[in-house]
Amino acid sequence: MKYSSCAFLARAHIRSGRRSTSVFVLLLLSIVLLTLVMSFAATMNRVIDTYQNQDPIRRLRISSASINLGYTPLTDAVLAEIAQMEHVESVDQIDGMQYHLFSIEGVTDEKGKDCSSMLPVPLEESVLETRSLYPTQQIDVIEGKGLEESPVFSCILPDVFYTADNVDLFADTLKLQDGSAYIGKTFTVKAFDSYMTTYYQKADHGGYITQWWYLPALEYKLKVAGIYHASYDNYGGPNRIYVSYETGVQIQEMAVKATKDPDFIAEYYQRKNNPEVNAYAVLVDTYDHVGDVYQQLEDRKITASSMTEAIIPESVQLISAVFTGAGNFLTFAILVLAVVNLFLSVSGALADRRGEIGLLKAIGYKDRQVFFCFYLEHVKIALRAFVLGAFLSGAAVFCINWINGSGPFQNRIYVIRWEDFLPLCLLSFSIAVLVPLLCQLFMLPRLVKIQPRQAMGSF
When you count CB atoms within 10 A of the terminal residue's CB, does the N or C end of the chain come out lower? Predict the structure, then answer.
């Protein structure tokens, strides 16, 4: 039997079959849901995973602020004990420049040529939000060199770059630049008004209160070593740059020494070396263990913040839960309905067309040839549903990515990766090919029992 004969019979059966339309619609829905909804669910799961794995989400702040309430003052011995606690990776002193806004005074290339005109906003309006890393903190770069392999006074920029204060992450009018264009360039920056740092000092009630120190505003030169991937879920904005811990310490100490006050400088180093008047950041191994470590600190009467340095937005958690739970359920339900309907279609075809099958056997068709005719009939329906479903889903993903990729910065976390979409397309293709085959194999014993003489009573 030639393939063309099977194909002709399959097309004829599809056109005349009453159940083929419902099977096609259900398979189409299941493929669209599997590829589109599950792709978005995978995107949201990755966003949550990125949030949970980033360094600030896993850091608790500890201090001696509440020793008047019976809490333990921090000492070197206490800090060493905390570092040995279960699930604790490190205890880092909150020292040096942790966060500051710097105005940009100029941009130069490696030859000293002025490149300030390449900034996205006028030089007098350009601002950088600068953060220094903890001693044990690292940020991966996607181009150039990381801070751990770069000299002091190096920095890394976001891959999408914009220089302005109070950047509106919800705005869709930001003219974001490619941060890689600045690799090798040097930013001359200056602290706003005065540089600020904090320590604790004893209060009248016996505990500690925050003390602000205002230091001279100096100029610093920061050379761009590389770029990191900036996104709303990765604790990075388009105007946020990072410097190393060593750079942050030197920036602060330069400002301290610029006071030229021997007594103040001596007091600064005395306080810096006194754990009781400093705060520390406890890095937990995973987000799931943050609550456990916090409870251990409470049990040891250590003053700890109940919240990490950064938190996962509730809106993101809600969207992730909805698409992961409801999306999985809906996709599974539609897929089950499609499979059940396909089984009923195959079973009904065997019941309605026993005479036809007997006639095919009577004119020389073997069981495997009849089986192939029926399989080809249903796989054509499934493949047609796959092609249309994959096309509709791919078009939807393209539109979603274009809207989110060119819209507000924070919406970029909702961009669906094609690496997530394509495997789901392959999975849906496998379903389109294998489900009809399994249905046919399940009905094979009934097919074999049909004899050629049964064709005589059906016509």
Answer: C
**Cβ(89)–Cβ(285) below 8 Å:** yes
Alpha helices in 170-261 (DSSP H): 245-257
Beta bridge partners of 157: 227
Helix/strand/coil (H, E, C) string of 71-136? Answer: CCCCCHHHHHHHHCCCCEEEEEECCCCCEEEEEEEEEECCCCCECHHHCCCCHHHCEEEEEECCCC
Determine contact, residues 224/184, Cβ cutoff 8 Å: yes
pLDDT of 297 > 60? The answer is yes
- Secondary structure percentages of the chain, helix, strand, coil, to 5: 55, 20, 30
Place of tokens 């050379």: 223
Evaluate if pTM is beyond 0.85.
Answer: no
Residues 6+ apart with CB under 8 A from 276: 64, 73, 74, 75, 200, 208
* Number of neighbours of residue 263 by Cβ within 10 angstroms: 8
3-state secondary structure of 142: coil
**Alpha-carbon span 141 to 147, nearest angstrom:** 9
* Whole-number Å distance between alpha carbons of 271 and 299: 27
Q: What is the average pLDDT across 206-217?
A: 74
- CA separation (Å) from 192 to 122, 129, 400, 434? 17, 11, 40, 66
Distance CA 447, CA 17 (A): 18
- Helix axis angle for 245-257 and 262-272, nearest 10°, is 150
Distance CA 274, CA 272 (A): 6
Instruction: Give the C-alpha separation, 424 to 418, whole Å.
Output: 10
C-alpha span between 26 and 285 (Å, rounded): 45
Question: What would the mean pLDDT of 142-165 be, rounded to a whole number?
Answer: 90
Tokens of 276: 């009781």
Task: Please answer whether residues 216 and 260 qualify as being in contact, where contact means their C-beta atoms are separated by less than 8 angstroms.
Answer: no
Asked whether the CA dihedral 365, 370, 373, 376 is positive or negative, the reply is: negative
